[in-house]
Write a structure and sequence with these properties.
The chain is mainly α. 79% of the residues lie in helices and 4% in strands.
Length: 211
Amino acid sequence: MAAVAVAGVGVGTREAGAIRAAVGAVVAVTRVEAAGSLGRGGRGVSAPERHQDEGVARGWIRYGQSSFRAVVQRLLRSWAARSLQVGALATVVDICVLLICVRVLRLPTPVGAAIGVAIGSTLAFFLNRSFAFRAQGTPVTGQAVKFIISTLIAMSIHAPLVGILADWLDVPVVVAKLIADVLVFSVGQLLALRFLVFRKAARQAAQEPPS
């Protein structure tokens, strides 16, 4: 049997192969451990450094959470959030009036939708003036005129849209009403309130220092 020398000791070919395999396994494990202990730039990272990195990461997470919470709180206190709350209440009143007009008084759907919008919009104007935009100290006449004009424009689009959805497309009248509200009032009317109806009040509120 042929023999080879490993570390100065004569062994057989089979024993030499076993030794080489064992040595190769040890080398591989050593390389994996060495790679795992390497940090940035090939430098080993000590336990304090790892704890510092973890602390920095947790600090960034807490900073992101607190920043997100601050943004949410600021949005909830904004004029837009208050106006949307007013709009939600006015929509409930609007729907109740619509159902009474259509199912109790048997009025045509577009007429019921127009009456509901008129009553809900009147409520929305006064609540937006006093609660959303805090405009009690500003003249009400010009605001009312602008509000009526913007509401009439919105109603001229809203009422036919409800009629088309409910009478032509067989959409349930409440669902048709909600779809029309979203399309006409949720964005367009909100922007009209901010930049047309209560523009001066919103500008004065923006110039006041935060309390």
